[in-house]
Design a protein that fits this description.
The protein is an alpha+beta fold and 354 residues long. The protein has helices at residues 241-261, 284-303, 319-347, and strands at 17-23, 29-35, 39-43, 51-55, 60-63, 66-69, 73-81, 87-90, 105-108, 117-124, 131-146, 151-154, 160-169, 173-178, 181-182, 188-189, 192-198, 203-210, 219-226, 231-240. The strands form 5 sheets. Strands 4, 7, 8, 10, 11, 13, 16, 17 and 18 form a 9-stranded mixed beta sheet that branches. Strand 17 (192-198) and strand 18 (203-210) form a beta hairpin. The protein is elongated. It starts with 16 loop residues before the first strand and ends in a 7-residue tail after the last helix.
């Protein structure tokens, strides 16, 4: 028995189809074979996106046209960098439309500066090797300026640095103004010196260094940043710290003088702003009541009339009743005096039996 083989070199897609092997016997024998041609995934660069520059808030469309048999699956990734500098794949920026996550078109609506990055179009159909394409997305936005301090003080003759932080894409042109007039912001212009410090991909700090402070240097400084998308500016006050310190000491001295005049000149002197608390000790209330009764009795003796001790109003009783009341009052007066003597001795720390 012999084997008859059909060899096809440099197979192409057009070679795919149904093949029959026939033996001229009686009856005729036929063997049918279907040839499937597989083609690895291929990205058609001519009809795919290379790079995109878009303004913040617009819609970005990324296209990755592929070919292959079977039809490849396309997946999109956003390439980010770890803290160690290693690249990793992750989902693209939150808030973007996921249409095209597994398709040849990726649409990002209302693109923000946080979506600017490199995106990978990854295609594979099960036939090695897989293939990918990188597309750079750059999002442009106007400058935004922040200042760590809106006012700073310095002494005459000292050195100081005024700093502003600018975030923008593309990189802006930054100038400094003093009281509305442009300052020569070259690397070294007289007593002024500009010192840039890059922070992140789109953020930089720009310091205006004044080497020796003079009286004319005090005033309002403005940091102005401009790019083709827009502009922003922020102001900072540079003031004389020596003068401010003297003013503060003067205000504190004035407050001390005012607060001193509100206090009594020496202890024990009455002052309307100082509360005077009545003395209090055991038996104090009873002593006060006894003194009130004694005063009523003395008033009765001087006027020749009788007032009830509890009420303090004149009485209309007859003379006999008044005499009895007067004797009762005298007796009560003696008892009160004895009580007062006892309390005085007790307060002096002595013990007497009365």
């Amino acid at each position: 028995m012999k084997d008859w083989n059909l060899h096809i070199r440099d197979v192409k897609i057009k070679d795919q189809g149904l093949y029959s092997c026939q033996i001229n016997t009686h009856p005729v024998k036929i063997k049918t074979v279907y040839l499937t041609v597989q083609v690895p995934a291929k990205i058609l660069n001519n009809s795919s996106t290379d790079a995109v520059v878009a303004r913040e808030g617009t819609t970005v469309t990324l296209t990755c046209n592929v070919d292959g048999l079977p039809i490849p699956n396309v997946t999109w990734y956003r390439i980010t960098t770890t803290s160690k500098g290693e690249t990793k794949k992750s989902e693209f920026c939150p808030g973007s439309n996921t249409v095209g996550m597994r398709g040849e078109v990726l649409i990002i609506h209302n693109v923000s500066r946080h979506c600017g990055d490199t995106y990978e179009c990854w295609a594979f159909n099960g036939v090695p090797p897989a293939i990918s394409k990188y597309i750079k997305v750059s999002v442009e936005f106007p400058p935004e300026i922040t200042m760590p301090n809106v006012a700073i003080g310095q002494d005459l003759g000292k050195e100081t640095i005024l700093e502003c932080s600018i975030t923008a894409n593309p990189q802006p042109v930054v100038t400094w103004k003093k009281n509305g007039v442009d300052i020569k912001t070259t690397v070294r212009a007289g007593r002024y010196r500009v010192e840039p410090y890059p922070e992140t991909e789109f953020t930089m700090s720009l310091g205006l260094k004044i080497q020796v402070i003079e009286p004319a240097d005090f005033g309002i400084y403005t940091c102005v940043a401009t790019n083709k998308v827009g502009a922003d500016s922020k102001e900072m006050l540079l003031y004389d710290y020596t003068l401010r310190r003297m003013q503060t000491k003067g205000q504190q001295a004035t407050k001390t003088t005012i607060s001193t005049t509100l206090l009594p000149p020496y202890p024990g002197t009455y002052h309307p702003k100082v509360s005077q608390k009545a003395p209090h000790y055991e038996g104090y209330e009873q002593e006060q009541e006894d003194r009130r009764i004694t005063k009523v009795v003395k008033d009765n003796q001087q006027s020749g009339t009788h007032k009830p001790i509890g009420l303090g109003v004149p009485s209309t009783e007859n003379k006999g009743t008044a005499l009895i009341g007067w004797l009762s009052t005298c007796l009560l007066c003696v008892l009160v005096n004895l009580s007062l003597v006892r309390d005085v001795l007790f307060l002096n720390g002595r013990d007497y039996t009365l």
